[in-house]
Write a structure and sequence with these properties.
The protein has 8 helices and 12 strands. It is of the alpha+beta class. Among the domains are: 165 residues, f41 fragment of flagellin, N-terminal domain; 110 residues, Sandwich (Immunoglobulin-like). It has a 4-stranded antiparallel β-sheet. Strands 6, 7, 10 and 11 form a 4-stranded mixed β-sheet that branches. Strand 3 and strand 4 form a beta hairpin. The radius of gyration is 43 Å and the shape is rod-shaped.
């Protein structure tokens, strides 16, 4: 078969260029450390790399969210622990103030401290994070969550109950903000009204009378010609001296007067009187009948405000009532501290899971993208040998000519 000189030269040039291209590609791979230098080198591998890099970008987003939440939850745990300590201190002061040995001036001093602690609690409820957002205002992060009225002194919630969530993994989202009313919850305040039988009528009987509230015996005296207002005041005075929060009512209809008491707080269960009391063996027991019962929800800061007012007004019954309400606030606040701590622990576990996932993806990505240097150097040396052999053989073949044999 005859081979033309032009074909020989073109084929040899093609072989040399192919060998040079392989050498240049391997040299570039070694220089960059990547097995895939251009997208056209291996589209299947490129698709795998892009998928893995997409997962890495998602993990970066999850990690940023988790880092933000970790700081946020840590701040919430710190401030709520401080709030719980304040409630414990206020409760201690309320128990101390409920002691009947304290004077009016003693309770005034306690009122000053409780008022200061209440203001400190408002400051805690309006805590901001590092970005200046109020952490207990729901979705309203740019306005104070709790505002104290300069006129009435009452504290009102200015936030909302909307919650927003962020993703910390492809299958898990967590709440990043909290509603202030779920943190600083209300306390139940029971209010019951009891009718007092055996007292009143068209003409008030005279003598000593009693009925029971819890284990306490409420005693009072009625004298001849005492007006209903006087009897009412005597009942309220006895309730107050026994440390029970309550009021008395006297209603006159068609010349007949009926009496009742309204009690609030834990000690709000009244019962019939006893025939003999410690101070009066001839005391008349009254018959007590429940007329109405209602449980109200008292705001977190209203409980503290009521305690300040009771201390300032020297109302021992209302002070005693606040002790049980403060216990309720403390229990609910402690539960919230526990929930924040649990959220923080769950978040830390998810961070560890994300780190393990990232490690596996990095390993797969390294397998697809990074260069096997030992294999690449071996291939580079083989390609250099092939290139040199191709160039040398072409040089020998190019020297052959029939004219040398003429």
């Amino acid at each position: 078969m005859k081979i033309s000189s032009s074909y020989l030269y073109n084929k040899s040039l093609q072989n040399i260029q192919t060998a040079q291209s392989d050498v240049a590609k391997t040299r570039e791979q070694i220089a960059t450390g990547k097995s895939l230098v251009r997208p056209s080198d291996d589209t299947s591998k490129l698709r795998n790399i892009e998928t893995l890099e997409s997962h890495v970008r998602k993990l970066d987003s999850f990690d940023r969210n988790a880092a933000y939440l970790e700081d946020r939850y840590g701040l919430e745990e710190t401030v709520l622990t401080s709030a719980n300590d304040i409630i414990i201190r206020v409760k201690e002061l309320a128990i101390q103030a409920a002691n009947d040995t304290l004077s009016v001036s003693d309770r005034d001093i306690i009122a000053v401290e409780v008022s200061s602690l209440r203001d400190e609690m408002i400051s805690i409820a309006n805590t901001r994070d590092v970005e200046g957002n109020y952490i207990f205002g729901g979705s309203k992060t740019d306005t104070a969550a709790f505002v104290k009225s300069d006129v009435t002194g009452k504290v009102s919630y200015q936030g909302d109950n909307r919650e927003s969530s962020v993703a910390i993994s492809s299958t898990r989202t967590v709440t990043k903000n909290r509603d202030g009313t779920t943190i600083f919850q209300t306390a139940p305040r029971q209010e019951q009204t009891f009718a007092l039988g055996g007292l009143g009528g068209t003409s008030d009987p005279t003598g000593d009378f009693n009925f029971k509230v819890g284990s306490a015996v409420i005693e009072f005296s009625v004298s001849a010609n005492d007006r209903p207002e006087t009897v009412k005041a005597a009942i309220e005075q006895s309730l107050e001296s026994s440390g029970i929060s309550g009021t008395a009512q006297a209603v006159t209809l068609n010349g007949a007067t009926s009496y009742s008491v309204t009690l609030t707080g834990v000690n709000s269960n009244a019962s019939n009187g006893v025939p003999v009391t410690a101070s009066s063996p001839g005391s008349n027991p009254l018959t007590v009948t429940l007329r109405e019962s209602e449980t109200q929800s008292v705001g977190f800061f209203d409980v503290l405000g009521d305690l300040v007012s009771a201390l300032s007004d020297n109302k021992r019954g209302e002070i005693g009532r606040s002790v049980s309400e403060l216990s309720s606030l403390q229990d609910r606040l402690s539960m919230n501290v526990g929930q924040v701590g649990s959220s923080l622990n769950n978040l830390e576990r998810q961070i560890d899971i994300n780190a393990s996932t990232r490690l596996r993806i990095d390993e797969l990505l390294s397998t697809e993208r990074d260069l096997d240097y030992a294999k690449a150097v071996t291939e580079f040396n083989a390609e250099m040998v092939r290139l040199e052999a191709t160039q040398a053989s072409f040089a020998k073949i190019a020297q052959l000519s029939l004219f040398e044999y003429l």
